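agent> call fold_tool(seq_1)
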Amino acid sequence: MDHPCSSNLMTQVKNQLEQLNGTANALFVAYYTAQGEPFTKSVDRMCGEDLMSFPPFHANSTEKDKLVELYRVMAYFHLSLDDVMQCQKTLNPKDQNLHSKLNSTADTVQGLLSNVLCRLCDTYNVRLTDMINGLNTSEQYVFQKKRLGCQLLFKYKQVIAELAQSF
């Protein structure tokens, strides 16, 4: 039995993007604050170097192409965020503020991905089957894990702002 997408699906996508954009900076601040020194003293140097690259997104594409690219960007971020969350359970197990922000972001991203997939499948008959890999810090030293997470969230702040404006 088919489950049709909600009639206001694109409104939900836009709202989810705006919600993520509105909370991105607070998540970033909670993250680098939880990592301690030298992150809190040298945020730009530790987190702002543009070494992190997300899948491409072209704001002037068709809705279909924008949704495919949005899905790839957010799937990459979701997988990477999951890696960051696992690291933080070990590195900062008692920081409930950080864990709450990470979990809330992950939940919203999951809902966004579901909505985007529904729209692609229902409206455009597109089924995405390509493999998307996220950040993997399992082989990294603790400092490098912290830094990669910080760089991811710094870049995410920029990317989510662009995405939110595009829908």
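agent> call fold_tool(seq_2)
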Amino acid sequence: MKRLLSLLGILQLLAATVAVYKQWIPNTNFETASNWDKGRVPCARDVVHFEKDKVVSVFVGSPHALTDMYLPLNGEFLLAAGAAFTAFDGSWDPGCDTGGTVRFADAEQRSWFDPTLWRDVLPSGELRPGGPIFSVHEERVPCRHDDVIFQPETSFRVNTDSAQPVIHLRSISVMGQELNTPSSWAGYLGGPSAPLQFHGNGTLQVTGNGCPDKSGCACGNALDGPRICAALLRTSGRQCPEPACQSPLQPLGHCCGVCGATINLEFTPDFDLQKYQDKLVQELLSQPKYAGVQMAMSKVHRAQTFLGAVSRGAAPLIQIVLIDDRAGAQAGTTAEQLAADIMQDIAQHGEALGISSGKMEVATGSAASGQVGSPRASRITAGTVMGLLFSLLFLGGILFLYRRGKLRLPALRPQHPWERMEDPEPPAPASDKGFDNPVFSVEPPDVDLGEVASKDLQVFYLNPLYNASETET
């Protein structure tokens, strides 16, 4: 029976992963005790104080009697049916024997990019049941193709400061109304409530578009990764928990090091991320021996390097992160075993699944991190290394023969820049012989240049058909 309930939970989880819904947790409701500095809702003998220079949007769900209330200069009260404020008439109020000043807490610093302020929910808004799937920190904040839900009958105020000017989303639900088109969202932004609920330099933009690629889409929060990690560490004590392994792994999009295993997959156009995730959950993660293992899978962009130095841009990869609940020297060992099973399955069925290669990296409490590649990737790496070795041997052989005198290389005299700048030699003077005629060859008469210079210049040519001696008298 327990196994059946677990299987039903997994199937419900798989059905919900097609579309990702993230719900904003905090609110600015009047009836929420954590919104007041005294940690309780104001009672009849209290004086309610809102800072006059703070912008607020407050939902009031029930009637309240108060001694006095100071309101802000800019704000709104959203009153539910039957909600109202009345002046205290001095009658007895149980639980409010002594009154005082109760101040509304500051909600200005609640950041959109704080992963602790979001939770994954079902389309109905109910909390998604716990299971073997988790998200890296960057993906716990709404991604560009996610649906965002603000709880019905709640007010809120969110700081949208961002490293990117526009924050894209598929849809936003406010007060029970889903806004999933650019025009409907633009209409809401033009209303009176939006400026009181959203503030900051980042602009929310609804596209209505889900991820169009079956191999998955990158989250799109990489630029705000430092902001996400800063908010997370500010909430958790400004430092990551100390992992039990010596050299913890650092998955892309995750703020803290982890013990366990990561697998990076290179894929073909036939790869389907959702189907592959479902396959791993059903065939491997559902096994009793992997009960304490959690998996995160998503498309990421990793910077490529050549020989560890020259960047070649970013390439899309499928990143799988595996962690377990083991402690001490056993931390990460169960995740390592699952990663080995996944790599074995890739070796057998990778081509049919649209996986071209995979690389596994492991960090456990008993060993430092290490890398294991798929057979195809290993062959490619071995071929690259052999090619480099062959090139070095070839160049070394040429150098050896040259130094032994067995090989002569042509001497190339480099042309220096100052030689190229020298003036070219003047062209040879034109000959006064005209041009050579292969039919007629006569030596030109001797002419004294001094006489030519003193006489009129005459132009003549020699006629091979005319003999000058025949015309003399």
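agent> summarizing second result for user.
The chain has nine helices and 21 strands. The first helix runs from residue 2 to 16.
agent> awaiting next instruction.
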